[in-house]
Amino acid sequence: MPGSSQGNGTPFWFYPVTWLLVVVGWLIVNWQNNRREERKEIRTALSQIYIDIEKLQKKAIKYHKSATRNIKLETQIIVMERKLSEHLSYLRLRDSSFGPSYSLFIDAITLDNFESPTFKQQPPSSEIVESIRDYSSELESALELEFSNLFRGGFIVKTITLAKQIKEQGTPIGAILNFIDKRQVEIITVIAYLGFTIFMGYVVSLVPAK
Known about the structure:
Number of strands: 0
Strand content: under 5%
Shape: elongated
CATH topology of the largest domain: Four Helix Bundle (Hemerythrin (Met), subunit A)
Mean pLDDT: 81
Oligomer: single chain
């Protein structure tokens, strides 16, 4: 067939396809290398965040178990909470994956008996102290679960988690994914209609002309 091969017998599509595969291969390898570096950076950041959570938990429990209100400890706790919040904001994980747990942890520390003129010493088994312990562990678990889903889970789990992360980042790709998520019924309907139309056109083309 004319144009189907070059003078040396090589198909005309051989070189374009070869270069396309080379470029795609390079992009995949580069993406995998970037993901490995990102994993190392996030793991390092998480290690520091876990230290921050533990320090804040201990400081908060010490405060609530104090015999009298300690304004110096209050200031230290507020500074530590802001530092933890700042570190979490830099973390490249979905806010929605750990945000609720973080709010519960901070509320357990500051919602009751904190900066209060009616401060009351809490026993080790009090609801406030137990809540601080429980919600600090819950926050660490939420962070670790998101990291595991993003980098250690199966292909489907990692893909879904990555897609959710991109959606929350506000990037152009994230905007596209949000649009698809909101308009998925309409998009599926259009694709189904186009598929049906193409199929019917193909069926009609098989009917011999009279």
